[in-house]
Amino acid sequence: MSYQSIKEAAYEANMQLPALGLVLFTFGNVSVVDRQAGVFAIKPSGVPYTQLSPDKMVIVDFDGQTVEGALRPSSDTKTHAVLYKHWEHIGGIVHTHSTYATAWAQAQRDIPIYGTTHADHLTVDVPCAAPMNDEMIKGNYEHETGFQIMNCLKERSLSYEDVEMILVGNHAPFTWGKTADKAVYNAAVVEEVARMAYLTESIRADCPRLKDSLIRKHFERKHGPDSYYGQ
Amino acid sequence: MSYQSIKEAAYEANMQLPALGLVLFTFGNVSVVDRQAGVFAIKPSGVPYTQLSPDKMVIVDFDGQTVEGALRPSSDTKTHAVLYKHWEHIGGIVHTHSTYATAWAQAQRDIPIYGTTHADHLTVDVPCAAPMNDEMIKGNYEHETGFQIMNCLKERSLSYEDVEMILVGNHAPFTWGKTADKAVYNAAVVEEVARMAYLTESIRADCPRLKDSLIRKHFERKHGPDSYYGQ
Amino acid sequence: MSYQSIKEAAYEANMQLPALGLVLFTFGNVSVVDRQAGVFAIKPSGVPYTQLSPDKMVIVDFDGQTVEGALRPSSDTKTHAVLYKHWEHIGGIVHTHSTYATAWAQAQRDIPIYGTTHADHLTVDVPCAAPMNDEMIKGNYEHETGFQIMNCLKERSLSYEDVEMILVGNHAPFTWGKTADKAVYNAAVVEEVARMAYLTESIRADCPRLKDSLIRKHFERKHGPDSYYGQ
Amino acid sequence: MSYQSIKEAAYEANMQLPALGLVLFTFGNVSVVDRQAGVFAIKPSGVPYTQLSPDKMVIVDFDGQTVEGALRPSSDTKTHAVLYKHWEHIGGIVHTHSTYATAWAQAQRDIPIYGTTHADHLTVDVPCAAPMNDEMIKGNYEHETGFQIMNCLKERSLSYEDVEMILVGNHAPFTWGKTADKAVYNAAVVEEVARMAYLTESIRADCPRLKDSLIRKHFERKHGPDSYYGQ
Prior knowledge:
L-ribulose-phosphate 4-epimerase activity (chains A, B, C, D); Aldolase_II/adducin_N (chains A, B, C, D); L-fuculose-1-phosphate Aldolase; metal ion binding (chains A, B, C, D); isomerase (chains A, B, C, D)
């Protein structure tokens, strides 16, 4: 079994990160899952984007064990594994240290929903998961990061199918989606929404959140049963 | 009737948006009107700029009904239709979510006229229309957006021929002009003016507006009867 | 007499402005003087950079009268003319609306000297000339702008040979130099110095100016009699 | 002896600075050491990056004396010489005036450790060395800059092998590493960390530093004895 298809998809998706200006050096990774085979393809750790190729992608199972590949997988691999294991309907995951989204994560703040650009993708603030406790950090850190992400959504009664992006406090954003392309798209969206929210607060310190009626309207015209956005 | 001319013009004008850095993914659209035929050509909804071509443009009448084209038109089509129907002298309309202009819209603030870059194009603050009331939002939203734009200008006694740009509160900018090229030009101008005003307030919190004599001078040297800018 | 040499120099210098990211559309112009002929070559008004060529440059004398050229010269031509007439040792002038320098001009603030990047080029704050009085504005505006610039330096006892950049309050920067290349270089320097000063104040609200000993050292190692910068 | 190898390495490393957006004009330089020969290759002073070539690099000894080369070496050469002389295990040094790092240096502030992007490279705030006293400035300035850098680390009990980047107060960043490539990498890292910290404080004025457990975890997974980042 060659996993050629997810290797190529992971390669293509990873190469979108520098093209979209979302990564400096190797500060990011994308993975693509094959649900039938129970594995995902992920970027090798520390390899520059200019040296990537489909055959360098690493194949890993949902326990984070390498199944195929000569290189060590991304150091965030276990976070990806946990999310694939528990979230059955996602097809791809992206992690970046994109500048504005990371600044919000470092500030440990949710990104408030200030406008329709945000509401086109999400009906709530972009959640920021609290930093983990010291025991989790000292333990199986990247594995626990996956649970920290899942628990943050659970505590807020949010579904991973509705909310496809999160900030991990003090760290950086993770995004996902039904496909790797959608996860990459979400990584660019959270960066732009983070940048706009930062500017909005600078322009008006006491800026109110978007009102409910506009949130509903914009989200539903793009994602609702009667959506009329796209083809 | 093939509408070839406005399809090509709409294609060329749409392609200027990514070239000018005004759009992420598909967050923008340009339309070009044919007054004699009573229709306009507009970008199809959700189609990436890299996949556009003149023949993919959609032909729509001033009631927002598709006249020709295999694809669904931009979800903002009804806003364009309302403006073409009521403003007889415009030839093109642009909508973007450009970062700085959108941040001012999210902050629900007019962009104050702080310098001659602004005055070269506009003698007043860039108006920010209030967000619509909930009934308008739940109703024919994009249609009402057109009226919200027109009413904002009316309430301030501004003419659409003098003021070719507006922010829709919580949403983003719309610009227009006698031609689509002018509307695209205005979309870049409002983004730059928004960026400069943001920086100006950061550099000086209590910054005064530009004085009247300078506003007049700069606007008239570019647009007045004795203008001496351009060829 | 063909003025070919200054036309080509003015063309090359003008084309550097978009390459350096200092202009949007046509918001800028460069001129190059021929002292022997008593004329300068300047960008035509409102012509996009992509359509420029050496033969489109306009030849103007020091009273601002067109000597040769089919196109109308830049609307800022009289400002250039006044400066060439009174400042014998400059060879080129640049005017832009570059974003950060323009924001300081709009805020009507001098750019404080906060670091050695600034001191490498200038031993004082970048001066911001006050906006003109209403009579000067209503009168021969661009001509008066030249005097506003000269008077600002005079009032502060600054020499145009030491200080090769200024902000015109509410308007934007002007820079000059012994050559047009140096004037363009200074246009990029004032933009970068403006950006750094803006960030410096954001990072530390009460930031002190650079101390005298460092100002002297950095300026003199680049410009003093014992300079050891460059070849 | 031709020093061809370090000349080529210095050329390649210098050319990375404009590619990474870290320099305007000639505001930066990289050097590469040959420990056996007791010399380093450094960029010539004031030569634009577009005109560089390996044979233009200047060979200098650890007392700052030119050993080979037709051009004058970078005006910061003596700072490089001092660091090579005292720090036996570094292979390359970079100096830039990159915008955000320079703004922190101008503000004379350490860059606080706010997130894991920072902790991946450094367990402490990026130190900002105090500006020198006036005697040091008037004396052998660039030589003293080297000692100012070394003394800042000493006072804080930091090792140059752990901390590969510093800000020189009022001036700009210096970075180094076991290789010139690593030093260039660090120059990009300090710029990005500076930008993120600036944004973080803008988003949350009272933002706490990263907690110790996360600092340890991230640094050790990349640099510790059981590191699992990279290949």
